[in-house]
Write a structure and sequence with these properties.
This protein has 79 residues and is mostly helical. It has one domain. Helix content is 66%, strand content 5%. It has three helices and two strands, in the order αβααβ. It has a two-stranded antiparallel ribbon.
């Protein structure tokens, strides 16, 4: 109700498997980070390129969470 009073449309509930999918993506990102740390210590990976890929994954997670949870502004037509 508060969102509507401030001019925002509440978002629908995310799909039932949303939280499981997000947990899985976060676990993948964590595993990638662990692999990168080990490989970097051994000099077996292009750490800059790997870090860029990891950052893209993290940004995708943020964008998904924002898209699912952020309420939309109510557009009012002024006549």
């Amino acid at each position: 109700m508060r969102s509507l009073l401030y001019g925002f449309i509440p978002t629908d509930l995310p799909p039932p498997n949303y939280h499981a999918m997000m947990n899985e993506l976060r676990a993948i990102a964590n595993i990638m980070n662990q692999i990168a740390q080990r490989a970097h210590i051994r000099g077996m990976i292009d750490s800059k390129k790997y870090d860029e890929g990891l950052e893209v994954l993290k940004q995708a997670i943020i964008e998904i969470v924002t898209a699912v949870n952020k309420p939309r502004k109510i557009e009012r037509k002024i006549e």
